[in-house]
Design goal:
Two copies of one chain form a homodimer.
Chain A: E1 13-21, H1 27-38, E2 48-54, E3 69-75, H2 78-84, H3 88-97, E4 101-111
Antiparallel strand pairs in A: 1-3, 1-4, 2-3
Chain lengths: 112, 112
């Protein structure tokens, strides 16, 4: 019996934003959004950052394959997540890229 | 200028299931679901596993704070994700715990 190691240590904050592009089939827009998201890794409060795109898994009732790009971050604390929000680099990303997406949904989790 | 290290290496499959409990305020049900999810870490294809619960971040239009529990897994490949689905431990988890949730949504991502 094995046990898979964690993705992230308990106590960390898992912060994700799911993006739906205005032009879902447009590679240029998707690349521009991904490039913008990468700049967020320069914000001191962001402990870890990965960007991902929808994977081609089997179609099942429970699978939502409607999104385009996901930003996954880890923060050391809720305070760091709060302080990240108004950081100039974060605000600059929103100003530069918000025309690219039609919808964004954010999920905040505590790793247990 | 720093750059945050990744949450997961490019090429890995980020597989997540978001759960909405039938009894969202019930600690017993939430703990039972979390305990069930932990057993999935014994499935050989599951490379990494973390469980998380909704965090109390600020209320904003874009934040969806309606879910209760999230399972976050990493797989080495799409094939491993596929082979995980019919694994007896996965099926046993579903049989034992599906009465606890009202809704589940799965997202499959490729880390880039």
């Amino acid at each position: 019996m094995t046990y898979a190691p964690p993705v992230a240590e308990p106590g960390l904050i898992l912060h994700q934003a799911f993006f739906w592009l205005k032009n879902p089939g447009c590679e240029t827009d998707r690349s521009a959004l991904i490039a913008g998201l990468r700049t967020l890794g320069n914000i001191p409060q962001v402990r870890n950052l990965s960007i991902s795109v929808r994977a081609s898994t089997e179609s099942r009732d429970v699978v939502d394959a409607s999104f385009d790009v996901v930003e996954t971050m880890l923060f050391a604390s809720l305070e760091d997540q709060r302080d990240y929000q108004p950081h100039p680099t974060h605000l600059a990303f929103i100003a530069a890229c918000e025309h690219l997406w039609e919808r964004v949904v954010v999920y905040d989790n505590l790793i247990v």
